[in-house]
Amino acid sequence: MSKNAKEEFYNITMTGKICYIFMCIERYLVDKYPDRDWTSVAKHMWQWTEHWWDESWDNYSEVVPEFIMEFDTYEETNLRAFEGKLSIETYNEIKALYEGITDGKGEDELSDVLRIPIDFGNECEGTSVNAAEPYVAELIESIENILIKNNIQLPDKAVLKHFEYDRGKKHGLDEKEPGWGAFENTEYLSIIIK
């Protein structure tokens, strides 16, 4: 476990931090439920780094048990939880994937794990890197603790070197704050997507 995730991830962009969280989630999923095909969940995770985060949050929410299983029918779920944007194919696929392993009420470990990126997005929305960092560090420590509790090896943090940035670099008022990271395809970090 990270002795202090804020220090350990100090020079890693927020993009790198969410990638690390996804790497942890994938390890959890394949270790705990090796008989399930987690490709759709992985694709919903890894799309995050290619879009504005509010859009990514919306896309990812399609695989979060509490959202996809909140209502009894596709029609109600699509209308009330996804504003008419959820496909019937995604709904059926994800509901079948979770059959027998979560009830979608958010009171089980799988739901806790899959909710971490939602919490990450909520903590980062409309704030600065410095303001979000303590909360993001808590989320990293939370997912690491779940992996450790289940005797699942943590991902290699060395692959995050690509996401390092210069903390002291000045930026103009019209530039994006350093530390968020760039839009990029990060699927290469996935152990599920082939």
Summarize the structure.
The protein has 9 helices and no strands. It has helices at about 5-10, 15-30, 40-45, 55-60, 65-70, 75-80, 90-100, 110-125, 130-150.
Description:
By secondary structure, this protein is mainly α. It has one domain. Helix 2 packs antiparallel against helix 8 and helix 8 packs antiparallel against helix 9. The two termini are 28 Å apart.
Q: How confident overall, as mean pLDDT?
A: 91
Give the CA-based shape. globular
The percent range for strand residues is under 5%
Strand-pairing-aware structural class:
mainly alpha
Helix content: 40-55%
How many separate helices? 9
What is Rg? 17 Å
Chain oligomer state: single chain
Keywords:
single chain, 194 residues, mainly alpha, 0% strand
Layout of helices and strands:
Elements: H1 5-8, H2 14-32, H3 39-46, H4 53-61, H5 65-68, H6 74-82, H7 88-98, H8 109-124, H9 129-149
